[in-house]
Write a structure and sequence with these properties.
CATH class of the largest domain: Alpha Beta
Distance between the termini: 35 Å
CATH architecture of the largest domain: 3-Layer(aba) Sandwich
Order of helices and strands: EEHEHEHEHEHEEHEEHHEEHEE
Oligomer: single chain
CATH topology of the largest domain: Rossmann fold
Strand order of the largest sheet: 4-3-5-6-2-7-8
Number of domains: 2
Shape: elongated
Largest sheet: 7 strands, mixed
Length: 322
């Protein structure tokens, strides 16, 4: 069973932001397609930001001879949580686009290094959200190389679903897979592992929530220096439940492999699917709870619909217990 969020894009194929998927096989095809895209930008006097795995960075650097208009960045600096990547790309593009200069991005996710099935699912969701986050941006475009050498057609179709354009033979064209339907199909959340702890909360219960989470996380092997971060994230999400989710919620905690999870459920609805993934403005009132959760946790999963309410799962890495 899957859950969906509606798309509000009325003409996605005409959006100013160009988001291209580039399936390739092997280093030669990677270089050919990526360099074609970069050289198009350079010929148009555009800047380029490149975030690809380290071995691909070496290949491109060897071909570009320290071209000053091309900047290489490391997505690892944003941390493991894909929920931080939109803000990182926004900052990189803003820096390179000073003075109104058009900027292109080249971003290849290290898909095979996904830490879990949940992490892989959130990486795909991030790709889809890029279209929403930058729908009104006319200043840049993004090429997403994808190594299709393993011939996993299901994985390729899932990723293709997230890109409005596809690049083949040096040209981009509308991607028919993306245009089929207008909703993002989430992977269903896995059931909590037994044993799990459950606690209902409402006004006045935030102290008990923090105490419960800290104790359970410590028992699960979360390092002491990370307990405070998790407690802040849980407090922010629980506070949102009380203020915006019907005044109450339910907390579940459990350990799974080397991860400690906190699941918070309430009857509220989050209509803005990019909430928490873009840096709040200094003058903004509210809206910082999800941002903090993304900054403090290793992964955040959000499922929110008007009829089923909101479920938020916070993941924090833990040491494996003997």
């Amino acid at each position: 069973m899957t859950e969906t969020v509606p798309s509000t894009e009325s003409s996605r194929d005409e959006a100013p932001f160009r988001h291209e998927l580039y399936p390739y096989r092997g280093e030669d095809q990677f270089l050919t397609g990526t360099l074609d895209y970069i050289h198009e930008a350079l010929e148009a006097d555009e800047a380029v930001v490149v975030a690809v795995p380290s071995e691909k960075t070496l290949l491109l650097r060897g071909e570009l001879a320290d071209e000053p208009a091309v900047t290489f960045v490391d997505t690892a600096t944003a941390g493991p949580n894909p929920g931080r990547h939109i803000a990182a790309w926004s900052a990189w593009m803003k820096e390179r686009g000073e003075g109104g200069r058009t900027v292109r991005g080249v971003g290849e996710t290290a898909w095979r290094q996904a830490r879990s099935a949940a992490h892989l699912s959130e990486l795909r969701y991030h790709e889809w959200l890029m279209n929403r986050a930058f729908a009104r941006s006319a200043t840049w475009s993004m090429l997403c190389p994808y190594d299709a050498a393993d011939e996993d057609q299901d994985a390729l179709r899932s990723l293709s679903r997230c890109h409005p354009q596809i690049r083949r033979d040096g040209q981009y064209a509308p991607n028919e897979d993306y245009l089929i339907g207008g909703e993002y199909a989430f992977d269903a959340l896995a059931d909590p592992c037994d044993p799990f702890q459950e606690l209902s909360y409402t006004h006045g219960d935030l102290g008990a929530i923090r105490s419960k989470v800290s104790q359970c996380a410590s028992d699960a092997g979360v390092r002491e220096d990370r307990l405070a971060k998790l407690a802040v994230a849980v407090t922010e999400i629980a506070s949102n439940s009380i203020r915006h989710g019907g005044g109450q919620g339910t907390l579940r905690t459990w350990a799974q492999d080397a991860t400690f999870l906190c699941e918070l459920r309430d009857s509220g609805y989050i209509p803005d699917v990019t909430l928490g993934r873009t840096r709040p403005e200094p003058t903004q009132i509210g809206g910082r709870g999800l941002w903090l959760a993304h900054q403090l946790c290793d992964l955040v999963e959000i499922r929110s619909t008007p009829d089923q309410g909101t479920t938020i799962r916070l993941h924090m890495d833990a040491e494996r217990l003997p």
